[in-house]
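Give me the fold.
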Amino acid sequence: MRGRDNTEQVRNPQQKVEVRRSARRRSTVSAYRDGDTLVVLIPARMSRAEERHWVAEMERKLQRAESRRASPAREGDAALLARCAQLSARYLDRDALPKSVRWVPPMRTRWASCTPADATIRVSERLRDVPSWVLDYVLVHELAHLRVPGHDAEFWALVRRYPKTERAMGYLEGLSAAAGWGISETDGEE
């Protein structure tokens, strides 16, 4: 059919790939992930050889972009602690250093928690796959609790030193709503 997209499943040993050919698409190629599937959009006129080339190229391009966005803090508790030290230096005058930071099983109503009395921070495993700037926001939020236990104006002034605070809060709100977790900013991070 003229003007309609033709969708084709391509099997790759490493991942599922879906190629969508479009008669309307003239020269551009684009790609995105849909769950565990790489979706590649190409012009209908491309040959099979060009298709293979562009699938490989777009897969490489997405992997590079994803690895740049991935936070090294996901690697383990020691990496989380190191990231906290960097964030404290950058946004909190090195004045908020935890004794320990660790990943914990998913919390029911929180993204993370901080116990100022013993300077410990716990981060929900649910955050392992969020973009690094979102994880950084959560860490800055918890680090700020080492200086100010509650959620008063002084606390929020510290947290908002992190430039992506509002954006990250929106991301987390959307993530919670989409997953049906019921985690909110006011009760989710204390």
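The radius of gyration is 21 Å.
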